[in-house]
Amino acid sequence: MSKNLNLVANTIRGLAMDGVQKANSGHPGMPMGMADVAAVLFLKHLNHCPSKPDWANRDRFVLSGGHGSMLLYSMLHLCGYDLPLDELKSFRQWGSKTPGHPEFGHTVGVETTTGPLGQGCGSGVGMALAERMLAARFNAGTYLPVDHGTYVFCGDGDMMEGITHEVFSLAGHLGLNKLVVFYDYNHITIEGDTNLAYSDDVRKRFLGYKWNVLEIDGHNFDEIEKAIQAAKAEKDRPTLVITHTHIAHGSPNLHDSHKAHGEPLGAEEVKATKKNLGLPEDQDFYVSDQVREIFAARARELETKVVAWDAGFKKYAAAYPELAQAWDAAMKQSLPADLEKQMPVFEVDKPVATRIASGKVMQKLAKALPWFVGGAADLAPSTKTFLDGFASVLPGAFEGRNLHFGIRELGMAAILNGLQVHGGFRVFGSTFFVFSDYCRPSIRLAAIMNLPVVYVFTHDSFYVGEDGPTHEPIEQLASYRCMPNVSVLRPADATETSAAWMAALKNLTGPTLILLTRQNLPVYDRAVYPPAATLEKGAYTLWQSAAGKPDLLLLASGSEVSLAMDAAKELAKDRVVRVVSMPSWDLFEKQSDAYKRQVLPPECTHRLAIEAGCTMGWAKYVGDKGRVLGVDHFGASAPFKVIAEKFGFTTGNVVKLAREVLG
């Protein structure tokens, strides 16, 4: 078997070298260094099915160091996924299925998008957590519909990134024993040897995280095999396999050289390496018939596992019909037709903070949607996101619905991506809006992957008050509005908050951010005002003082809508004033031109936008003759009513500015 493994590993090296060389771009060193581990893992242990890539109980494989994507593409091609050899020859080219870094949803067999180092590690932890949570819910008797592992390849760069501290610390705390991480320990980064900036004792670090730590020669097939077997046998801890490897293993002149990290080996070195590995020097992208048959045999073996699982699940469904129905519901995640009717009713004479309203909505959602799970970065009492009546997910107890991420915003966001992409859950995470900056890299990846993760960001403006500028988001709102495929919702009252949750759950093509207040806001009587569900159009006329063409448009989102309403009542004494609630620019932009003109009639050029954040972007909606009352500076520490007065967010100042706009 070792002879076959060596042949396969060298074939992987050849494909990786050729792909990078042909593209004249890429990273050949890591695929060459980890080819031996990949050969053992994929041929002897990884349970997956190229003919059924969405098999629910497949093992998940994550290449966190996405720059080494030719390793993954080579494996997917050899295993029999729909990734022809021509795609490997088109590595990094326009329209190919082999982009520079693996992309979920773009290339079949890629489990998650990896690019920024460490993100794949976070997603891997989320996948491993999803497996444990599903197993706790659905495994019964002798039937195990959920029993798969998560395998992650990472390197020195991943280990240096702070995100791996956050996610691996939590993984160890929870005891995610089906998570196996291979650390490609080759001592190389782009600039040279890692001793330039890195001398961590990784073994001690992970022992401190409560991991099972193994150490092997990454080019010794027997040691690789024994390590995987030991990791699979571990019942209480995740496993780190410190895999001592050589970058560009097999290259006569670039073995252990940082030059092999991020650039082609060069035509002559490729030939020399092929000669050294026993590959045909004059053939590119060479795969022998023997290697083809080795992988074909493995594919046939894997298909029998899928057939056996399907047969087992039929027996499971017969023995546990309610669990089987719940399984199907968790996989499909269809919303009940009457879900909106199940939401709480808010009293119009009782002002309430939208974070409080959101918490009440979430309690109803939790009861209606068994697959609705999530948590906070240690702020659930403030973000109001704890699901009452449901247990917490804790070490050895994964049945619960409440996740505790600790003070790990970046780790939380990456783990949420892994949970969501795994399947079986609809997930949310929460923190204060200003701390969303820590979540940004993972939110961006969720947007790229079209993952419908929901973020509950509270304390959404300078109205936080006494905590001061470090806790008062100013620029965050504009920065997320410009991020593609992210839906940003800033509801104006409790009823819009309920509608925001409905919109978030209906959005299946990207993340949704719900921005909520700390301070109380009036609740609008929807028997008098337009239905709150109109929020799904992004903007709508909340109130107009009289019929006909408006003289003035007051545009606002969130807490500033009530301020606009108060000012409008003053201005309405001698003007026709329209108040437009604009909770979501992205949803508004999806509406027809006719609807946009209806809400914002072009002939009405007297416009004033009001928002407790930076003014960037509002010019599109107020035009050349309009104005924006915003905050293009940091906040301050004081009671929020004092700050509002100092920053001009008062009825009197809005009236003054509006009259200036009117001329």
Number of domains: 3
Q: How many helical elements? A: 24
Please give the CATH class of the largest domain.
Answer: Alpha Beta
Q: Pairing-aware structural class of the strands and helices?
A: alpha/beta
What is the radius of gyration?
28 Å
Helical fraction equals 40-55%
Percent range for β-strand residues: 5-15%
Q: What is the third-level CATH name, the topology of the largest domain?
A: Rossmann fold
Please count the beta strands (DSSP E, at least 2 residues each): 20
Low-confidence stretches: none
Strand order of the largest sheet: 10-9-11-12-14-13
3D shape: elongated
CATH architecture descriptor of the largest domain? 3-Layer(aba) Sandwich
Descriptive report:
The protein has 663 residues and is of the alpha/beta class. It folds into three domains: 2-302, Thiamin diphosphate (ThDP)-binding fold, Pyr/PP domains (Rossmann fold); 340-521, Thiamin diphosphate (ThDP)-binding fold, Pyr/PP domains (Rossmann fold); 535-662, Rossmann fold, CATH 3.40.50.920. Helices cover 42% and strands 13% of the residues. The strands form five sheets. Strands 10-9-11-12-14-13 form a six-stranded parallel beta sheet, sandwiched between helices. It has a five-stranded parallel beta sheet with strand order 1-2-3-7-6, sandwiched between helices. Strands 16-18-17-19-20 form a five-stranded mixed beta sheet. Helix 2 (29-44) packs parallel to helix 3 and helix 15 (409-422) packs parallel to helix 16. The radius of gyration is 28 Å and the shape is elongated.
